[in-house]
Design goal:
This protein is α/β, with parallel strands linked by helices and 248 residues long. It has one domain: Rossmann fold (3-Layer(aba) Sandwich), CATH 3.40.50. 43% of the residues lie in helices and 14% in strands. It has a seven-stranded parallel β-sheet with strand order 3-2-1-4-5-6-7, sandwiched between helices. Helix 4 runs parallel beside helix 5. The radius of gyration is 17 Å and the shape is globular.
């Protein structure tokens, strides 16, 4: 198994991408430390996971105290942290810049950017040498998104965090890479599309931009996260994997 004897911390594990990645990691033998700010959603999403290899913790990524608690309990239960998948994120809403709520903008930046920074400050120093950090960005981090500036800005920021963190982390053999999903079939994307008009018309318009002619499945992203978490990517750092069916 590709992740046997490795311990992974996955934030946002109550959501589709976090949960699906956790499922793939579990199949490959990883110990799992799964966090989400909604403990009930986390419990429901992961109720069938092997309890002896799973630690579920309600935690807010924007909280230093919560992140310290997650790190401490992970080390206490499993003795090491080998993979940190900084995945928690929110989408904000669809609106042009002139009408975008600054309160919503701040919420998006807090979770999608500040949440990763806090994780890096607290978890990275405790990670095993030779480990792997994976950050969830987006194709919105590679191009403009005029109807969702907060999300795009936050996902661009993830690239800056990756590039900056890879330098000191590399001295310990810890690699730092980012995932850039495209239009993933998910509740998050459905919420955003619904804000832009008729759902069927918006879906048709977006599908026309995809060279493979379909939305991406969450498991396709999870398999990329598996590659980045496994030793198969041990020569790869400060890079990005774009899984978007050919949008960018």
């Amino acid at each position: 198994m590709r992740l046997e004897n490795k311990t992974a911390v996955i934030t946002g594990a109550g959501g589709l991408l976090g949960r699906t990645t956790a499922e793939v990691y579990a199949r490959e033998g990883a110990n799992l430390v799964l966090t989400d700010r909604d403990p009930e959603a986390l419990e429901e999403a992961t109720k069938n996971f092997p309890n002896e290899r799973t630690l579920r913790l309600g935690a807010d990524v924007t909280s230093v105290t919560d992140t310290e608690r997650v790190t401490s309990q992970a080390l206490q239960k499993f003795g090491a942290i080998d993979i940190f998948f900084a995945n928690a994120g929110i989408e904000g809403f669809s609106n042009e810049i002139s009408d975008y709520s600054l309160d919503v903008y701040n919420d998006v930046m807090d979770i999608n950017v500040k949440g990763i920074i806090i994780g890096l400050q607290i978890i990275l120093p405790k990670m095993s040498d030779g480990g792997s950090i994976i950050m969830t960005s987006s194709i919105a981090g590679l191009m403009g998104a005029p109807v969702n500036i907060a999300y795009a800005a936050s996902k661009h920021a993830v690239i800056g965090l990756r590039r900056s963190t890879a330098i000191p982390a590399g001295k310990r053999g810890i690699r730092v890479n980012s995932l850039h999903p495209g239009f993933v079939e998910s509740p998050m994307l459905t919420r955003l599309m619904s804000q832009r008009g008729d759902l069927d018309e918006v879906r048709k318009e977006m599908t026309a931009r995809i060279k493979l002619g379909r939305f991406t499945d969450a498991e396709e992203i999870a398999n990329a996260a598996l590659f980045l978490g496994s030793d198969e990517s041990k020569g790869m750092t400060d890079q990005m994997l774009v899984i978007d069916g050919g949008v960018v």
